[in-house]
Every structure is written in C-alpha cells, then in structure tokens.
Design goal:
It contains seven helices and 17 strands. By secondary structure, the protein is an alpha/beta fold. The protein has two domains: 71 residues, Immunoglobulin-like (Sandwich); 191 residues, Rossmann fold (3-Layer(aba) Sandwich), CATH 3.40.50.150. The protein has an eight-stranded mixed beta sheet. It has a five-stranded mixed beta sheet with strand order 2-3-4-5-6, with no helix packed on it. A two-stranded antiparallel ribbon has the order 7-8.
Length: 289
C-alpha cells in the first residue's frame, strides 16, 4: 500500500462505526467511510468534541450537522511540497481535497524534477487541482480539465493560495473524452497524464460516464496524445470492487505495450494517528519509463 505519512495539517484520528474522525488543521470532522466495519472507538472523548458530522441520508446524499462554528472555508498546507489548499465542507461529504493523493503527488513531482527537460502534464477529471498544483510546483506546464465550472474555479484558488498563479496552467471546463478527442485532432502532445475518474458522472452537457464502460477506451485515446518520450501515466480509482491489478493490467495493455517501461498498482491509504491502522482510500495505477 502507498501511504503518505508527511501530513501535518491533516490527520485521521480514529475509525469506528462506519465513520472516520479527521482533523483538518484544527477542525475535527466526522465523515462516513464504508471501509470502517468495526465499532470500537479508541478516542471516545474526541468523538464528542467535534466541529461537524456528515449524516448520510437513506434516500441518497445527506447533510452536515455543525456543533461548533466552522468558517465557510479555511486552508490546510502540505509542507513537503509547499502547497496550500482551500477546504470547505460540501455536499456528499466532500471537503475539496483527497489527502491520500499526496503519496502520488510526491511520486510524480520527483519524476518531473529529475526529468531535466520541460514536461507537459494533462490532468483529466482534475477536480480542485491537488495534482495540478503539485505538478506546477515541480516545474511542469499543466492542462487542467474538469466538467464542473465550480471545481475549476476552486482549482484556480488553490494554486493562488500556493503562490502558483503565474505558472503555465490552462484551466478548461469540458467533457474529458471530448477534450481528448479534440486534442488528437489538433495533434497536441503531453509528456504525462493524470486521471482521477469517478465511478459515475455527467459531463457539462449531460454526457454519462460509467467507469466500467469508459475507462479503457479513454486510456486508449490518451495513447494518441502522449509524446514520443512520455514520463509517467497515473490512474486513480475510488470504485469499490475495482482491484488495483485492474489498473496495472490496463496500463500493461496500453502504455507498456506502446512505450515499454513499468506499470505497477496498489492500494492508497492514510495512517491512523497513534495506531498501526491504515485507512484504505482506493487504488492507483502508475506507469513510468
């Protein structure tokens, strides 16, 4: 499992009863997590002294219940890469950041820095720009693609908070598949691709995305926008039941077949403070030359 133990502003404090207790730079939030199948609190007093809890509805979605005052938004920093992100509790339990992805940020940041050449990165399903910020900090130019105008605006704010506003980043609100198809027609090439596809989603014009139907064809299309000497390819998945090996197999059949190199995949997780527990948070597939 790939784990980042370098967070200071974020911590998983405890796990129990289908929930995780987290500290986001001084604000303690409780959110549902299906991986927590036991009911045993190690820090019962902290569970009673929280700022907010997300309650999931039986009808889908849910709502936040705040027990203490929480600002509309606040920041957390990832010191190893000198990145700062804006946090805001939002619908469907999210906060605008997936801290477990820091292990991938560190991996590809090193590759970009050590490449000793200009690197262009295509970030698909780019959300609020965690990976975009990390790639820009490492010195890459980035095309940031997401179908949500609000998420793209949030990404711009995150890069500004990290002092990266002047970096060469293109922010594009678009359906990922249609964007890649247009880049193929334009003949534009990228040295690295990052994708963080949802299990299910809709594009800006109602396009339906189902990961089991669309992921492999998308990766095949991406082969046509990779440069002659690509640096890396990263696929993240939060889809329950999609094993890490599926991601490495997919990369073997596409990127490795065309460029050689090595494809590996594993679970991604977060350490639980003051314990040997690790919270699994999906999977990643990595390819590098």
């Amino acid at each position: 499992m790939w784990i980042c133990k370098d967070w200071l502003d974020y911590q998983v404090l405890d796990l129990s009863g289908g929930e995780k207790l987290e500290d986001w730079n001084g604000y303690r939030l409780v959110r549902p997590d299906p991986q927590v199948v036991w009911n045993r609190r190690k820090l019962p007093k902290l569970w009673e002294d929280i700022h907010g809890r997300y309650h999931r509805s039986n009808k889908g979605g849910g709502n936040w219940e705040f027990k203490k005052r929480v600002p509309d938004r606040w920041t957390v920093s990832f010191a190893p890469l000198n990145l700062t992100f804006n946090i805001k509790p939002m619908g469907f339990k999210h906060t605008g950041l997936f801290p477990e992805q820091a292990t991938n940020w560190q991996w590809f940041s090193r590759l970009i820095r050590e490449a000793n050449r200009p690197i262009s990165v295509l970030n698909l399903f780019a959300y609020t720009g965690g990976a975009t910020a990390a790639a820009a900090r490492a010195g890459a130019s980035v095309a940031h693609i997401d179908s949500s105008k609000g998420m793209v605006s949030w990404a711009k704010e995150n890069l500004a908070s990290s002092g990266l506003s002047e970096c060469p980043v293109r922010y594009i609100v678009d359906d990922v598949i249609k964007f890649v198809e247009r880049e193929i027609r334009r003949g534009r090439k990228y040295d690295a691709i990052i994708m963080d596809p949802p299990s299910y989603g809709r594009g800006p014009n109602g396009e339906v995305w189902k990961i089991e139907d669309e992921l492999f064809p998308l990766v095949e299309k991406c082969m046509e926008v990779l440069s002659d000497e690509p640096l890396f390819f990263l696929i993240n998945s939060y889809t329950t039941g999609l094993a890490p090996t599926v991601l490495s197999d997919l990369l073997e059949m596409t990127v490795v077949k065309k460029y050689g190199g090595q494809a590996v995949a594993d679970e991604v997780g977060l350490p639980v403070q003051n314990s040997k527990l690790v919270l699994p948070c999906g999977a990643s597939g990595r390819w590098q030359r």
